[in-house]
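Appendix B, record 7
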Amino acid sequence: MRAQRGFTLIELLIAITLMAVLAGLSWRGLDSLIRSRDITQAQVNKTAVVQTVLAQWQADLNAVHPAPPLNNDGVQWDGRTLRMTRRAATNPADGADAGLWVVGWTLRNKQWIRWQSPPVRDHATLQQAWTQVDRWGQTPGSEDAALETVLLPLEAWQLTYFRSNTWVNPLSSSSSLDKDSSQGALPDGIRLKIDLPNNTGMRGSITLDWVRPNFSNTKT
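Structure tokens (predicted):
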């Protein structure tokens, strides 16, 4: 009878050592894969936030509605806060007129912030909301801050208007560059440039052009 021969202790130790090395290498690869997935997902989430905010910006401008009682054409920029009157997007259950929203955009403490009033349907409430958003853009109180939404961190933002077939500074849009019939009206286009901070993982500048829906360039 041939004697049965098993593994020696040294062979078992070698096998266990090899299995431990392979397990360690596999874990390192899996950990690296999980970290890469988390980083990618975080970047996707940040990109989605920026896209959502810019979509809100476009939606506000697309819904701009002039408010003659305020002596403006729906949009007013003072170098710090952009104020606008726009059509409300939610209709009351009773079928009444949705009214207007007064909306403000500003940069405060490196944060881009949006403010929105409740729906307004009369001149007195409209004037009150317009004054409130102006106050909010300068020195907001607790009542004003309750209507704001912090959107995303920004280093800076800049607006440029398209008037008289050229891009101009909104604060100097009544200069000699703009002496035609469009003076004081809603600009034909608004160019937004935002600078993203380095510490958020998304850095650089984004430029977005908005064109007035009924704009028609008849100049040659």
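Remarks on this record: The beta strands are 75-77, 81-87, 100-108, 111-116, 148-153, 156-163, 166-168, 189-196, 204-211. The first strand starts at residue 75 and ends at 77.
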